[in-house]
Amino acid sequence: MAATAPQRAIKSLSDPLVTELLGLANESARRVESKLCVVSGRKLLHELGENYSFKQVVSDRPLPPMCPLRYESHHIVSDKILRRVANMRSYQHNMLGTVQMPQPLEKPPDTARLLLILDGIIDAGQLGTILRSAFALKWHSVWFLPRTNTDPFDYKAIRSSQGALWNMPFTYGKLDRLERFIDEAELFPAVLDTRGALIGQESDIFAKANARGNGTRDRQRRNGIALLIRGPHAGLAVPPKSFNRLCLDDAGGRMDLAEADLGMVASVALHEIKNTYFQHITTSPFMASPELSKEVSKYAHHFDSRGRARNKRVLERQSRGKGNGGGGGAQTDRLARYERLGKIKA
Fold first, then answer.
1. Which residues of 225-246 are buried (b: 16+ CB within 10 A; e: fewer)?
2. For residue 2, is it within any domain?
3. So what's the pLDDT on residue 173?
4. Where is this region: Disordered (predicted)?
5. From start to end of the chain, where are the E strands?
6. Does 166 score more than 70 pLDDT?
7. Count of domains in the chain?
8. Residue 294: is its pLDDT beyond 60?
9. What are the two backbone dihedrals, phi and then psi, of residue 127, each rounded to the nearest 5 degrees?
10. Boundary (domain end) residue, out of 100, 132, 159
């Protein structure tokens, strides 16, 4: 049963709680400082509520007596406030909540065999679509190249991804660390491009890679793949030479890949690669949880005012320059803990 908490009706947009919620929904810096973000939608709250508790739950009416959500406080607000915080035109009879953000790992789990790499995805809706597809298709982990992608905990990204990052491990790291992990895990490095080996039932992407001169090294890497998706603002001017170029079939000219939405193209590629070449690989047996405190990546949820990932020390230096750097220092980062699904208790 949900924890009992006093309720108070809020109708003013200037209320301190509303100001806090608007800051968490729209400002990366607020999310970094509090390690909280806003999730909206009754369905998403109930799905996350199976494994996580909320700091605040906000709705326009009292919650039912047997509401399964766990929370510290519940607040009743007007429909206008719900719409403003959720950034929706119509949001009647719905709810939103604040929840702790899952934290990235220093590197993907050793069991990861389907690794998605993102570089330069600046549209929050497209980023969320790609993450949602990766989770639905049971890819194991996500690697964000730093400073190039939009904040994955932006309200648009959370809404379109339906909270995918709470259910799959993710990492921030530079290219050298990424290539090291790919070598250690013996994954097949690939990049989605407009030319290269054709992805599909009649094409052997590994054979084409070997014909290019990679020899037996890539033939031994069929136990998994590391797929790089590059957006229009990719930090890498050109794909790394170690990555094999792959491309999608345009369905006999019926699909204009040059004009297609990046989220759609990436989702198709994730589906085709998984179901054509790696059907034997099962879903990752792990689920993220933000409870334990350990050392994490230095790019762990450190974003500047424009939503770009930044080194923690750079942000601290910028904060001190504005007169906000004193007093207590940065809070201790938290690491995503992984538990087998059967052991997680709601």
1. bbbbbbbeebeeeebeeebbbb
2. no
3. 94
4. 303-346
5. 9-10, 36-40, 54-59, 71-77, 95-100, 114-119, 141-144, 170-172, 188-198, 225-230, 244-247, 286-289, 337-340
6. yes
7. 2
8. no
9. -60, -45
10. 100
Q: Buried b / exposed e across 124-160, counting CB within 10 Å, b at 16+? A: bbbbbbbbbbbbebebbbbbbbbbbbbbbbbbbbbbb
| Structure-block tokens of residue 183 | 């070598």
Question: Residue 122 maps to which CATH number?
Answer: 3.40.1280.10
Q: Position 191: which residue type? A: V
144, two tokens: 């964000």
Question: Residue type for 131, please?
Answer: L
Counts of helices then strands in the chain (DSSP H, E): 11, 13
SS (H, E, C) 250-278: CCCCCCCCCCCCHHHHHHHHHHHHHHHHC
With tokens 């719905």, the residue in question is 94
Mean pLDDT, the chain, as a whole number? 79
In angstroms, rounded to a whole number, what is the distance separating the alpha carbons of residues 60 and 18?
13
Decide: pTM greater than 0.85: no
Question: pLDDT band for position 325 (50/70/90)?
Answer: very low
Q: How far is CA 187 from the centre of its chain?
A: 21
Exposure on the CB side of residue 305, measured as CA atoms within 13 A: 2
